[in-house]
Amino acid sequence: MSHRFGAVGRFGIVLAVFAMASFIGDFTVAAAGSFDPAGSRHVEDARRRTLAACRDRGIELPPDFLAWIDADESLQASVYGCRRDPLPVLLALRSLEIDLGKQVVRNEYTQLALAFAMADSYAASDRNASGWNDGDTGQPDDELPDVTPRPLLVLSCPGDPRIPVDTKSADRELDVYDHVINFLEDHPAIEVEVEVKEFPPLEYDERGIARPRGKPVKVRKTVERGLVGADVIASADLQDEFNTHMAANGHPEIVIACGDRVVHHESKAAVGDKKVRASIKAAHDLFHDAYRAKGRMPSERDASPSRSESMAWFIRNHRHDFSGTDRIWPRFPLDAPWPVLMMLAADDQPLREREEIWTAYRDEGEFRTYGEYIGGIAQQFDMQSARRVAPFPFSYGSIQMMWKDGGVCGTMGNIGARTHRICGVPASTAGQPGHCAIVVMEQDAETERFRCRGGQYATGGDEVTTVHAGWDYDDVGGRRPMVFHQSIAWAVNHDPEALIEAMVLRRAWDALDEETRSDQCVQWMHGAMEMNPFALPLIDGVIASAPDPMTAIEMLDAFNSAFEPHATGEYDLYVKTVRDLVHERIHSLPTPIERAGKLQLLRELERQECGHARLLARSWKDLGGDVFKENCLAACVEYLGSPARTKNRKSSRNFTDTIRTWGRSLKSKKRRRAWAESLLEAFKGRELLVIRRKTSVDPAYAVLCGFAERPVPTVAELEDPEAP
Questions:
Q1: Buried b (16+ CB within 10 A) or exposed e, 614-640
Q2: Could you tell me the pTM of the whole model?
Q3: Is the CA virtual torsion 130, 134, 135, 136 positive or negative?
């Protein structure tokens, strides 16, 4: 499977598909009152406006650069058609070419350059959210990418920025921080127990030849080292010594009182006493500020690299020759279509931080995606920092500091995602209920198919995971559920060029007036599915324009019918997500006025297996009488009889959320209590949930008890109701 886009004709082919659907000619674009086939002139119009904006600003772009873009329709569509404001994309691409050279940008790493240019345009949007109109981007010129002539970039990774200060200088009056550092550095060495890696001792065979030593193992050793701030925070005796030292040097006001081993190098428990915590924080701040002021720590975190520096750094690594080693390289193809490279291009880690991790992988094969899990103290950043504050070449926020200090899931997710990106793999942290995980883009070496895979999951699967990387495929942005990013990989697998064209048509769709969108949304759904059934940026936009519930129902039917050839278990969550988007749109619309219309809508929702709890509750209540209670009761009976209930907690968790939503939809306490009591009847004798031989109170039952305003029985009480 080749991922290099064709030079000509692809966009016209897709428009022909829309024409064959016999609705393309009806589309209108709300631009200067003219009528245009949707998409057929969108890129051309965007190009014209963007170049006009360049002329207005006095920006000159080389004719051969513009001709290169125009010679490849997918490249042209990417540059001019995938953002409402293409100017930052165009200029960012040119800026990369100036820094890295034509060969790199035009021939070797075009897709990576597009990803960086696109990521830069989203960063600019974050700084200035205004859009553009008639060629005016509304973006300040000083925030646009620099396209002035300059020499080729020479990549240089910064060194350690610390410049140690002489804290005993006779040429100036010593300050507080001088005395803090002098106490630490003049103190006799202390003995501490540390964990180190050592090779096992050499063994020899009968010929006296040494056998292979194997891999290093972790051992604990007692070593001597200099005193650091964390040692003082951990020891009441050292705190007394420190206070005496500061008073003797003219600073009696500097007093620290952190207790004895309240916080120390191995602490894992959170600190509950607020006064003690405040004292420990003050001590940490004192040592931390002294280390920074006297060049024992950087004064601030290193600056993020420019887009050109970041891209050059990835390219340098990508070209490294790993022959003769066991390294997996490249870990991800940098010539992949740009949509699957966006998480990589968004990486803003300083080069010095990246370089240390990269060097360890390059030279030693080290690929650490997890750190030290330290428990509850990680929820208190000041205490976590105090337990190991010491001279260090990196600042807080760096992956190196995360390794030094440890953390919980958020730290582990960051270590994992950052390490993958440093090694050239698009990755991001991701949120789950009460947990932080990671997601990575992967490519199968044999099939060349891409997938977005989750890792470090704890509280659920893809269905409860939200990726922290920006959804940089429409002009809405923000964070989206895991399946959105998975759909990008699937859409590229299906047809990468068609995905680009779908994003162009999303912009064309957004440019249509509301009436036209309302009239044409069903036809556009057909066209989107014909183009690329995984093109969620376009599908999502079309769904959001459904003018009424029955039109939305029709749109979902169109999606389901067209997706049938692809309906495998792999895509179940995707199909459910599109269904939920449609039903969420219906929930945002007014309900039918007549009872017959309400009943018809409910029947259609049931046929489409609607799982939208709020929409179902509203539809049932709209019909009046006991419809709401009867349907809730039927759902309880179905849940209690389902084999899935006792297989894992996913079923009970989902139903509990549904029950909670239904209960909260009843505003009257009296009605809510009566409703809960009626449903509790269905649970009689089945209040307990046994999963993998572990017995617990069914959480749905517990929620109903809350609504009924009755205490939740314990497992023991439910197992033996007659027990005293």
A1: ebbbbbbbbeeeeebbebbbebbeebb
A2: 0.89
A3: negative
